[in-house]
Amino acid sequence: MNFSLPNLSYALNDLEPSISELTMKFHYGKHHQAYVDNLNKFIIGTVFENRSLEEIIKTAPDGPIFNNAAQVWNHTFYFEALGKAKDQNIPTCKAIEDKWGNFDVFKEEFSKAAIGLFGSGWLWLVEDLDGKLQIVGESNAGNPMRKGWRPILCFDVWEHAYYLDYQNKRADYIKNLWTILDWNVILKRF
Asked: Residue 111 falls within a domain, yes or no?
């Protein structure tokens, strides 16, 4: 199987001012593309050559194949949940309200966890094996599917995701991500 960079549903400048076109050119156009290219090279002649990204993530040992497959999947999942900057209507989501009481409490806890995740990685909203929502951090290429959990939302907190626009101000980046989330996409994942 040959993987390719998925198309975006928006233009590279549609996320401004939250994420600049320059950041998108590097993050999506170069960084994400590099993971795709590397994965395609690494899987040649291996048992993973004809497997889906999900199968590779769930079964590959830690190392270059897992890292690149997970980063392709993680980035695709992240970019799919973004959209044109717009006035945010707070989504109604019974599962979030049942777990956190209301959306604002969830947003505050998720943001705090994203800001506080040490080093590089991903912050996820997942459904665990018991069907309960959890906020979990994964370092590096970590992906909750390896634990059997179902991803719903993720924030990329690697510095390459925000450094051109925010330098070391991860909190500002996290705050502005909330303004460009496409809740139509995210709510379908529940």
From this structure: yes
**Longest pairwise C-alpha distance within the chain:** 50
- Please check whether residue 2 lies inside any domain of the structure: no
Of 150, 158, 159, 155, which Cα lies nearest the Cα of 188?
A: 150
CA 182 to each of CA 43, 78, 104, 169: distance values in angstroms, whole numbers, following the listed order:
33, 11, 17, 23
Whether 16 is covered by a domain: the verdict is: no
Residue with tokens 């994400």: 32
pTM of the model: 0.96
We report the CATH number of the domain holding residue 156 as 3.55.40.20
Measured distance CA(155)–CA(107) in Å, rounded: 12
Q: Are 67 and 140 in contact (CB under 8 A)?
A: yes
For 118-156, the pLDDT digits (tens) are 999 999 999 999 999 999 999 999 999 999 999 999 999
Please give the residue range of the domain that contains residue 149.
Answer: 94-188
Secondary structure of residue 125 in the 3-state scheme: strand
Q: Is the peptide bond before 17 cis (omega within 30 degrees of 0)?
A: yes
CB atoms within 10 A of CB 140: 14
